[in-house]
C-alpha cells in the first residue's frame, strides 16, 4: 500500500472515532456529554439510555427525559434535588439546571417514591476550563 492509501485509512479511522464520540458512543459504552447543551435520556423498562451523562460544573444542562417503556418510570438526580414527575409510557419532561459540584452522582428511577430505585445510572460533573 502506498503512502496516500495509508494516510487515507488513518483519516477515515479518525473521522469514524469523531463521529462515534459526537453520536454519544465511546468505545462501545453509551455516554452523553453535556457541556452547556441538551442531552436526551430514554427510559426503557430495563434502564436509562445512556446510563452515564457527563456535564461541566457551572454550565447549564438541559435534559429531555422520555419514557420509552411500557410502564411508569421516573428520573431523578437526588444530590441535585432533581426529580421528574412519574412519566407514563410515551411521556417526556425537560429538566434544566447548572451543576455546582464536581464528582459522580447517582441517577435513579424511583416511581414509587419510597427510596426503592428500579434502576440506576451515573451523572458525572467535571471541572470547567
How would you describe this structure to a colleague?
By secondary structure, the chain is α/β, with parallel strands linked by helices. The chain has 2 domains: 1-29; 31-126, Immunoglobulin-like, CATH 2.60.40. It has 1 helix and 12 strands; from the N terminus they run H-E-E-E-E-E-E-E-E-E-E-E-E. The strands form 4 sheets. Strands 3-6-12-11 form a 4-stranded mixed sheet, with no helix packed on it. A hairpin with a 4-residue loop joins strand 8 (76-77) and strand 9 (82-83). The longest helix is centred in the first third of the chain and has 20 residues, at 3-22. The relative contact order is 0.18.
Indicate the CATH architecture of the largest domain. Sandwich
Give a quick account of the main beta sheet: strands, pairing sense, barrel closure. 4 strands, mixed
The CATH first-level class of the largest domain comes to Mainly Beta
Summed up, the helix count is 1
Number of domains: 2
What's the number of extended β-strand segments? 12
User: What name is given to the CATH topology of the largest domain?
Assistant: Immunoglobulin-like
Global shape: globular
Mean pLDDT comes to 81
Oligomer class: single chain
User: Which structural class fits the helix and strand makeup?
Assistant: alpha/beta
Helix content: 10-25%
Low-confidence stretches: 3-29
